[in-house]
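Structure in, sequence out. Go:
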């Protein structure tokens, strides 16, 4: 019976906080590594396309960027969702239970008030858009401008352009948060 007496709502909420902060930390590391992996994979695909002289290999770059860009975006959204949950739900509930006069998890709001935050977010959005949208668009354009473009691959490249536009819109949508 002593074990059940130790289980309180506050302890459960603190345990939840520890777990979701760990998840957030893991997702941040994964997301940041995705950027490096995307650049390495894209550079590799570009090198192979240039060395082989086969323009159709340029269409591998949009595939790489679409798959990894979407994964990056989903992880970034979950990272933000964890912060929002802590600020809006978990922190206020713990403050209420503990009778604390202010925010329980001050860092979750403090770092968002940094004067340079808006500029950093805009620059990060520009880097994300360049990496996951502009670079593959350049590759599609280079392919479409190459001689002897097969009609089927024109259709594929047009589908890639549409998918990249959707991905770019999603990056902009999430950047607004």
């Amino acid at each position: 019976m002593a074990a059940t007496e130790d289980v309180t709502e506050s302890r459960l909420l603190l345990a939840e906080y520890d777990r979701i902060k760990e998840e957030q930390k893991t997702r941040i590391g994964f997301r940041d590594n995705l950027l490096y992996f995307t650049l390495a994979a894209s550079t590799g695909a570009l090198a192979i396309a240039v060395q082989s002289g086969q323009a159709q290999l340029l269409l591998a770059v949009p595939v790489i960027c679409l798959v990894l860009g979407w994964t990056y975006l989903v992880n970034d959204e979950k990272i933000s969702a964890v912060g929002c949950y802590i600020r809006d739900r978990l922190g206020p509930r713990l403050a209420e239970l503990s009778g604390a006069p202010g925010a329980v998890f001050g860092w979750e709001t403090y770092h968002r008030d940094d004067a340079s935050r808006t500029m950093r977010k805009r620059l990060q959005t520009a880097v994300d858009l360049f990496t996951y949208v502009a670079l593959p668009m350049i590759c599609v354009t280079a392919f479409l401008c190459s001689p002897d473009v097969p009609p089927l691959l024109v259709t594929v490249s047009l589908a890639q352009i549409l998918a990249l536009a959707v991905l770019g819109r999603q990056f902009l949508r999430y950047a607004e948060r």
